[in-house]
## 1
Amino acid sequence: MEKKENRTVTAANIKEQYKKFIGRKIFFIFFFIALIVGITGVSTSLGSADISVWDAYSSILRKPFPNLFESELIFHWDDVPGSDSERLKRYLIDKYDIGWVESAEIIKSGDGKITIKGVGENKVEITRDCRDKEKANVKISGDIDPGHRVNDFKVKEVNGELCIHESTWLADVCVWNLRLPRIFLGIIAGVGLGIAGAVMQAILRNPLASPYTLGISSGAGFGASLAILAGAGIISGKYLIIGNAFVFALLVSFTILGLSSRKGATPETMILAGIAMMYLFGAMTTILQYFGEAEAVKEAVFWMVGDLNRASWPVVIIILGTLACCVPLLMMRSWDFNVMGAGDETAKSLGVNVKRTRIITMVVSTLLVATIVSFTGTIGFIGLVAPHITRLAIGGDNRYVLPVSGLLGAVILISADLVARRIIAPVILPVGAVTAFMGAPLFLYLIMRRRREYW
Amino acid sequence: MKLKVKNIEFGYNSTLVLENVSMELDRSEIVGIVGPNGAGKSTLIRCIDRILTPGGGSILLDGTDISKMTRMEIAKEMGYVPQTTTRVFPATVFDTVLMGRRPHLGWKSSEEDVDKVIEVLELLGIMEFAMRDFNEISGGQQQKVLIARALAQEADILLLDEPTSNLDIRHQLEVMDIMKGIVQNKGISAIVAIHDLNLASRYTDRLLMLNGGRIFAAGAPESVLTVENIRRAYGVEARVLSDGERPYIIPIRPIGSSGN
């Protein structure tokens, strides 16, 4: 407890303190955004193909800003042989460790081929690709590390001049097709789960509320198991598992809402109904698994642990769309969440329609979680822990808790994914398990060292 | 602002808690509601603020039935001060009082709202706690914060539900003085449910004594707080003294079973 050394507190004083108080919250928002950007870069650079962090960032940024983040210019086609000859030779020596280029002769034949001829078999042939205008093939023969015999350069036409750049397709493919969808899915899933958790805890006034405890995850788990084990579902084809998980997740929470709104939609009935549904659907999943084939059971269990392996751009766009619809609806109500934290009676007396707010909010956050969970499987813990860590850091004002909790959720999820991918690479651990592995000790530490009474 | 309560009824699962209760509240007036436990004091206050929806009767604010007003409109006219509540999640005193601005603000709190909160905190002398956590401060301070929140709401009518029940005698007097001062200086009015008959006698203009959900007696404190009324409503033998203006009650002993 801080000592009040100054008993005469002035209005200006309080105003100043309040500004600092808000400033601290805003700082956390920017801090977490920076952290997400940082982890994205690091995470993109790691993997089986070797890409430096810098290459990863420039590969990400090259798509929106193609000119600003171009790779290194090696030479101008028309200036070789000529003023750029030395430049090309230097590049080849540094890059491929072929010293014999130094004294080699450069010959240009026709329009599409440059040959650098050294002694004996040693030679470098740069040929413009006949099908791909933006590519030049580089063939090195003779005295060279066998791994570097075949390479390529990138060809770009700027103001009628042909510029030859370092090739970036490997990094681009790696980053944009393999790693970024996964990381983006991690970010948006983390944001969604973090915000949904914060909202659920706020309107139910319960520190244990999370998408897990409200049965949404077990509903999704049952739906997916049904699809995997029995092959039965509401939608058929490729989206069977996803569709089933989504429909059952909604089914569970609408049942909870329906039951509890008959009893005035109090937090207690909602939580108890949620826990009952969690057990019910958990039991049904167990029975399904009991009669299932071993391989299918394994698949169902894998699905339920939750991971980001199913990431692709369409998935990212679907979830991003849901996020864009749901999050503003929730943020708009942050004041109501604050007021509801003081109790339903107080909230009513301050003009909040408590029952309606609670039901609408539950519907919106359920949609959000169901969409995420049906693509990723049940990634637990983030929805529970991100809001708590946020409140420990910046206090309970939901106007700031919501965004910070979302950002923190993203940080936790993508850093857990980074660990999950790399710790025993090439095996990728399920991120759903790693979040809890990393998050639980951090959370316990924060609880033990908190200074004030917290809930 | 004038409040008229006409023949209010309220029941939990067919047990009537309030029956045929009517009252009026004028500008700059403090009306106290007294009565034994379970008489319906808190229920009446909650019905007036429409936290509970009465089963029958009507409540008129300057002639408008509040059942035809939105919650937000009601919140701009009436502020409710609950008994001390604990929050599950932390909130600073400042943020708690800022919540009183809810009926007046959008997503962002403006400079004006912040100024209003500071003004109210200053008025109640709780400025030094502004950045402390609500759950950390004492009961008396919490009660002042809750009153501050209702004041920040800029309502014309304050509804206080047993504001002194958890407080030591100094804080009891402070809280009641604050309430009286606000009513006199700001021209607002208040309805106070209160257990302490002596505080009720001293601080209210008129009293309503409830028993078993009905009005048992109503009027000026000296006409309501009589030996006979206290014996019949509370089942307590008491002496009633007077300092010339207001009655003072000295409870002596409970008698038999409480009167029906």
## 2
Amino acid sequence: MRRSLRGIIDRLYTVFAIFAFLVLIIPLLHIIISIVINGLRRFDLELITATPGSLLGSGGGILHAIVGTAMVVFVAMLISLPLGFFAGLYLAEFAKGKFAHFLRTLISILAGVPSIIAGVFAYTVIVITYGFSVLAGGLALGIIAIPYVARSTEEALESVPMEIKEAGFSLGIERWKIVLFIDVGYAKSRIIAGFLLALARVIGETAPLLVTVLGGINIPSNILSPANAIPLVIYQYALSPFEVWHNIAWSAALLLMIIVLVLNLGVRYYLKIKMIY
Amino acid sequence: MLKYLLKTPKFWLIILMFGLPLVFMVSAPRAITLVGQGATFPEPLIIEWIVHFQKKYNNITVVYKGTGSGAGVKAILSNTVNFAGSDAPLKLSEWEEANRRHGPILHIPEAIGGVAVVFNIPGVDELNLTGDILANIYLGHIEYWDDPNITAINPRIRLPHERIYVVKRADSSGTTYIFTDYLSHVSSEWAERIGKTKAFRFPDELGDRGLAGYGNAGVAQVVQQIPYSIGYVEFAYAVKGELKVVALKNRAGKFVKPSLETIAEAAKYATNLPDPWESWHNVSIVDSPGELTYPIVSFTYILVYKYQKDKTVCSALKTWLRWILTEGQEYSEGLLYPELPQNIVELGLSAVNGIQAEENAESSALLVGVSLFLIMVVSHPRGVHNE
Amino acid sequence: MSRNRRNLRESLLKRLIRLDPIEGISLFFSVLLVVLTLLFIGKMIIYSLPVFEKFGVGFIVGTDWIPRKDVFGALPFIWGTFITSSIAILFAVIISYGAAYFIVEIAPPKVREFLSSVVELIVAIPSVIIGLWGIFYVVPAVRGLLKPILSPLSFIPIFSGETSGYSYLSAIIVLTLMITPISTSFIKNALENVPIELKEAAYALGATRYEVFRVVSKPLIRRAALAGIILAYGRAVGETMAVVMVVGNIPNISISLFNPGYTLAAVIANEFLEATSVLHISALIALGVILFAWSLIVNILAILVLRRVSMR
């Protein structure tokens, strides 16, 4: 090929690459800007301290959803942390052949479960007998969180350098102490980071909650109470015809974005600090 | 290992962090939950009611989902909700099925509403229509906005030569029922071909001009967004959505737009209402007489069974129903639903008073049977088996 | 009992006794997890059986979905999921390569970390928020901007018809936005790991930057890129919220991207709570099984393809 033609092609692709990058970034910026601009309208104290109010007024706040999210995510973590952590631990430390392969495959299958299906499952197990509840929502979100927790735990533990483990063995320390204190101790920050990232992932999930928690305006008190959640209330209000609710939806979205951002960036910062030594 | 862990403070911290909230969540008192489903027609009002009701009775949680009257009726027939909302009274067959499956079912009018015909023609703010023309638009016979039939009754308005996009409800809807009830009254072709129904398919004549939305909100959105469209929504949705409303010709010959006054007028003609535990399938107040009356008006009903299984649910239900018929009515007009006339409120209250927690029929039969058997056994003369 | 079985029992027992407490606990939870997962899969399959009993394989190719008449067919949703995810992944692949190339080759090295963080930020945005943005900005844009712009092309079937904005196209736009960062970060990471000597050798031979990318980098990153693309595709197939808020939710099968449609995930989310007939619930769960199987097949395909690619 002639040299100038090749140069032109190179430049064309450069233009394309810049264009592709912009195509990705510009909508992102637009989303963030619109969340901020629209969200500031109702981003006030009432939003987080009041329950829903009159349609003829400001519409109240989303305290009920904030409490609901906290409770549902709590139950989800209660379910997914032990299951995920120990599964990851087992795969990293004790895995042997067939069962390990089977377990890993199963975790991959769980990771591919569409979130709405997790909700449907929780519906058939819990809602049918105990009704719409925080427990059902927590189970659904827990199912989604387990693969994240398991995989990050496994990766964190596998990153423990062999020398440290060997040092432990050479000192005659029992196996379980090595695993619990040395391996987990070394990887602790990464494991906790994994927990927090799983939390950040499920806090924004809506689909499974649609069919498990009912979404009313009450503040849940009991694990079997129906509840609402921040992403769910965004969905309900966005689809409504009431402008009062649209405003609250944007502000709730801003709140949710801040929570997710703080979690994600917080984890990154936390890892950086912990990794320094 | 356990002994070691028990000594570690961190272990206890984790136990507390997770355990304490868990204990709280498992032992806290639970509110009684009432679940309702159905019509989107009264939904804004019900939402407002729930907000104020729960402020007063915060141990009762009420949740209402606007899924359309059809879904509400299905839900109450299979008894998966505590109460249902429907703008259409139960069909005779549905009423009989309800009675057969779960006992007497009550129709309690909770509000009156009007169905506004909304349109979106850029540059046009007012429009007169008759019921007959409306029916023909929905049947597909009238294709353009500047059709002679329409321009004839709108002399001072310039209508464009644009195709009419006709919007209906995609889901099974009581609002559709009320709308088609009206169209059946004013157009014999409509009564024959489609009749009054909660859902209908667009006639072929409409071609690709037929659109659908889910719920009153959905239809409102479609009309808001599609120029040259026409649709029907509950009046409050028209106002909230800032949609332009058609002035319909009523039975007295006047072109009337829906408003609190014109809708309330129709309620005056609601006479000879059945008792709440009877069938209401013939009740209709569309196209009522009167100069000021808006023609497309209807009650919207709460459907609830007379016999409830659970005592606490029963009394919570009665509290809720009593409240919406009395204190709740204060909020109706603010949301553009006329207040219920007193005679209808009393009709509703009498129905609510009749709701009771049933003694399980089967278990009492069993009790009687077992007692009889025991009596027979005990009183059986001794010595018989010596024969 | 035969000798073999007895030996097996003894060796398993011996293994169990030799377990230390941590291994024991881990094993317990892992088994619990396995049981939970199998229960999950089993329950879903059992609940979906009634509708297959009634319609057989016809359920999958059935085109009519009329719940009030108990008529169910999965095809409109399979079509919707297929068309939205396929076109979205097509866009995603094209954009990913370009964006990753930009980040790694064109942008100054100092901002690289920052730029890729920004791209990954999109993944962290909850889908309901993207749906919220979609309702208020994408849908009106499709109706008011894209349709008029593309109207000269409306003789082409995929661009024909009127639109309210709620359409396959809106769903494709939000899906593309959500999944592109996934494949972009995989490709970008892989590009960074291309050994610098190979690239410099190519430069020394007089290749342009693009040619180095095309001839040296691309073949080397094939495995990682494929993994990212497949992951992104799986995400698109299972995405519920953003799609249900903008796709129109009408179960028809149409070619025009401007028409409203429905996907498997969206219909389950919308109709599940209102389904009161057993058959309706079974049909929805069956759709869920189809959806689940779809992402499963995609994952298995990924493993197989990756195995082949790495063997080259």
